[in-house]
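Name: Tetracycline resistance MFS efflux pump
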Amino acid sequence: MDAPAAGTMRVRRAALVFIFVTVLVDVMAFGLIIPVLPHLLKKVTGGEIADATLWHGLFATGFMAMQFIAQPVQGALSDRFGRRPVILVSNAGLAIDFLIMALAETLPLLFIARLLSGATSASFSTANAYIADVTPPEKRSAAFGRLGMAFGIGFTVSPVMGAWLGAVDLHLPFWVAAGLCAANFCYGWFVLPESLPPERRAPFDWRRANPLGSLRMLRRHPELFGLAGVSFLMSLAHLVYPTTFVLYADYRFGWGLEMVGWTLLIVGVMTVIVQGGLVGRVARTFGDRRTVLIGAVAGAIGFAMYAAAPTGYWFWAAMPVAALWAVAGPATQSLMTSRVSAQEQGRLQGAIGSLNSVAGIAGPTLFTQSLAWVAANEVRGPMAGASFWLAALMVAIGGLLAWRVTRTRP
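Structure predicted for Tetracycline resistance MFS efflux pump:
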């Protein structure tokens, strides 16, 4: 390998490391505040649990609504001005947002800050576009898998850290989150090169940058529209974990917080292992299309086993099967990025992120209502796992859709 090629490889490697780190740090920043935000809301609303719960739901909806609007805009901006400035502005915006939340003592200021975080955190989509820019198509599944590993590590470790920091002071996790995002901005300023050269950029157009315009772009590519549907169903099914698992485990198995915590930790570790170590190997062996189908089958079976599990031991036995589902997401991303030009990668990721935001808005209500019906009617046996049966159905439909739309190459 000659010197210029070796230098290019080093720059590319440093860039990929930064993208991994920026996703990890952003996820950790959000994870840190998960256990303390409800308590902070309880404090600023006067100490009533009912009021805090209501506002927590409104905060979550507002956050996802802002992502629905902002992700296509950021994607289109990154297609016009490059990935680097969008990622750096997002990191700086998150640092400012968490700083405001650390100082906020009133509900309106906290709500405004949460809306700001929903808009600025859309850098996750731009990070995916960056990966598509600098990674050959045959290696994208592994690269997207490593980003998934960053998500897994961040959400496995950071809530525990947030709980520890929150025990010292409710505002401390927000200070730490702001510091992490500011440090990430400084790191990226010196390390991150631009991945999209000027000759491959596309003009910015508000008609295409809004959420509906970005979805119209998907409609122009029948396979891409179908694969976006697969991604949506997978994202929707995944929400069964954060929205119902704690209460489901209590109702079905009588588990307390300690057992739930250990179980979620093991789920996170398994996901990290699959996305960080298995995705690339499976994709190289079977190809992206078959990897998606393998993951969908494993996910549907795993969720069905969760739903039917009569005891906690049976639930644990299903965890390795369900963990294999994690190969489907990166492979789906790889298939989608191979179906658009370099000039449309940002808009593609913005459209996907916007769809996933819709899942984030609809999923909590869908799954919590199914569990509420089970508890209200004191349902026992396999049907007590109605929320997991619903997730299994979503993954199965996603697998069938993937099989149908990828039967022929474009």
